[in-house]
Amino acid sequence: YFILCQSRLIYVCFYLFVYLFSVLGFVLCASGDLVKVYSTRTEEWLHSLQGHTNQVTGITLNPANHLQVYSCSVDGTVKLWDFIDGILIKTFVIGCPLFAIYVSEKHEGVLFLHVSMCFQLVSVHLPKSAEQEVEAKEMSAVSSHISKNPSCTAFGRGVRVHFFFFYFSLKATDKKGAKNAFTCIACHPTDDCIATGHEDGKIRLWRNFIHKKEYTYSTQHWHHNAVNTLCFTPEGTHLLSGGIESVLVQWQYGADNRKEFLPRLGGSILHISASSDGQLFCTSHSDNKITVIESSFKVCGVIQGLVKGDAVLTDLMIDPRSKALVLNGKPGHLQFYSLLRDKHLYNLDIVQQEYIYEAGLDQFEVVKAAFDIKGSWLATVEERGKKSSDLEFFLKLWAFDERTQSFVLNTTITAAHTDRIISMCFSSSEETTMLVTAAEDSQFKAWCQGADDQNFWSCDFVGSYHKLNPTNCSFSADSSLLAVSFQEVITIWSPDTWEMLTTLCQPPGVIRDLCFGRLSCSKYLLGTTTKNLLCCWNLLTCELEWSTSVDVSKLQPDPFSENVAAFSYQSKHTDLFVFKPSEPRPLFTNKNVCSEKVHRAVFVPREEPLNSCDESTQWLNRSQLYFLTQNMDLLTFSTATEEDRMLSSSKQLVIDDSVAVTPFYLLLGKHRQQQQKLNTQSHPVADKPQQPQGSVTIKELLHTPAHVLPAASVLCSMFVNSFLISNTGVQQDPLRYFVHINIFLFKVKTLVNFPKLMKYELLYL
């Protein structure tokens, strides 16, 4: 039987599917349009299953072969994979977006899918075909208008062939004001028992629903908020539950309210999975983390992706030392993430206060961060309070410690400004280090290390312009100039003497972004305004060089070349333009990069410059552009050369001819060679029998790993037909027929009993 859990309120959340196979030591999880495979022992990423063209929404183990896994996607396909070798076995085309996938051990060759049409649950019979891509046409609806949340559908032990539908009714609210809406569901693996989670944090166990008696339920309660997920252990002795408290609760089945707790796991628990032997559990969290837990309730591994928070308030930065991507991570932390290894390195605690997971509570957040050019200093700003009257903020300077290979707090400035800091930047000079902060108190300040004592920072200069609020600040490439924008006016300062050199009058509009050109374009200054203008000034003539009307949401210069990237949001999509300040005509244009607005971007230096790029991707030679969307998706551009390297994850195994000769070849191959030689001598080439049509299928069979092949019964008829001799009308020696049939029977027996060994033998025959 299967259970549908329906709620009046649509439950929407970021859902990370995780499936655990502890016997083999693998964890599989859906990540974008990929399925990533990790090791439970080393916590390392092994490879990715790459083939879907849209977001993967569900994965499940093939009950007929535990070395294979099904995945479904919004692209409308179901794919069957060999997840150990990372090989795509077959693609089933469904034709509509898919949101979840389920299998039942009692129904071989049948999948159950959430489809987009009225959110139906349908059963799909998978056709048996030798082709790698096949359309699944046999489909029947099981139920309509089911919940979007995959946790609200579960399959039980399937005591009968047909399905049972159960509709449990609870009032939306009771007299005490409790919220009874269903949020998740799980079926007991051996008993006729169904566990449901609810918005009020209660768990109900339902029984007697198959018999004619009226169903009953018992209630267990610990969670103070909605229960996000439920999972029975394979033996059914325990029930696991999780929610926003980030505590894994283990309930002993049959013993009321006897439970164990595993607290402080990270973000909210979204999904729980148990290995087939019950030795390992894993939980996925809202902060994009997977925790691997032993059955003794001890954490044995953590697989941390790019930490997903509510918003990224800092810019995307690159640590000059480790080349790691740095941005907001856990609440009150900065995360360091290796883009090269696709691995989370560590979190740096900035706020240094315990975070309380409670909605609506005002707590400190990291809102600004910046590195100096050598990576020796890190500046951060943390604040809390939305109103100016309630605002609290601190400016902190962190020094890199060579011994611990991390940043340690050096200076805390409690009253850096009298109002919110909106921009800050370090000078680009390697000789002296200077930090400039601009705030809404109509001032910008320059901070330098003490002349006698280099271990503390102090204010060196305070600047302003007609009591206007500054909006941005930026140093030139050689740190000889500082540009500070005040509303619609840009001021140019000399950091050596703190003399204001000139002002640049801007056409109407407040300055949003400000940056200097690099290398041969260092004489140019770029700015964007709220009036949808992109302007370029020549600092040698102090005149406007050119301007264009474009709504730029993010302006990002490449520190390793003259190129500048501009993201423009219009008509519900974002366009990308890459140009040089000396030439307003774009070098590269990409329309409809994404459907959301881009506010964060960064150029990441390459370890080795690319030399084989075509003209359209020359701007990617020295660095790679990464950008972050409003949906917290981190995207990048890759060249054709890089894509060729990525294809290794979807490799196809081909047997090399240099493999040693097998005993089967010595036994039967010699006879086959003699037979082919005799046929060539006795018959002209024109009379040679044509190859059977099944030879293409046999060739595919020979180039497929034996452990991913279908059952021998499926291949038997196809294999037998491939050995039938065509009728050419030429009288053959009966003895030759007898020898051929005996050899064929020997091959069939070997294929059934030793498929892997026979596969290599057929190759040499």
UniProtKB/TrEMBL annotation:
GO molecular function: RNA binding
Taxonomy of the source species: Eukaryota, Metazoa, Chordata, Craniata, Vertebrata
TM segment ranges: 9-28
Taxonomy, superkingdom: Eukaryota
Cellular component terms per the entry's GO annotation: small-subunit processome
WD repeats: 49-91, 175-206, 220-252, 414-447
Keyword presence, Transmembrane: yes
Organism, as annotated: Cyprinus carpio (Common carp)
GO BP annotations, alphabetical order: positive regulation of rRNA processing; positive regulation of transcription by RNA polymerase I; rRNA processing
Major location category of this protein: nucleus
Keywords for this protein: Membrane, Nucleus, Repeat, Ribosome biogenesis, rRNA processing, Transcription, Transmembrane, Transmembrane helix, WD repeat
Protein name from the UniProt record: WD repeat domain 75
InterPro entries found in the cross-reference section: Beta-prop_WDR75_2nd, WD40/YVTN_repeat-like_dom_sf, WD40_repeat_dom_sf, WD40_rpt, WDR75
Location relative to the cell: Nucleus, Nucleolus
Domain WD repeat-containing protein 75 second beta-propeller: 316-632
SUPFAM superfamilies: WD40 repeat-like
Gene name linked to the record: LOC109058288
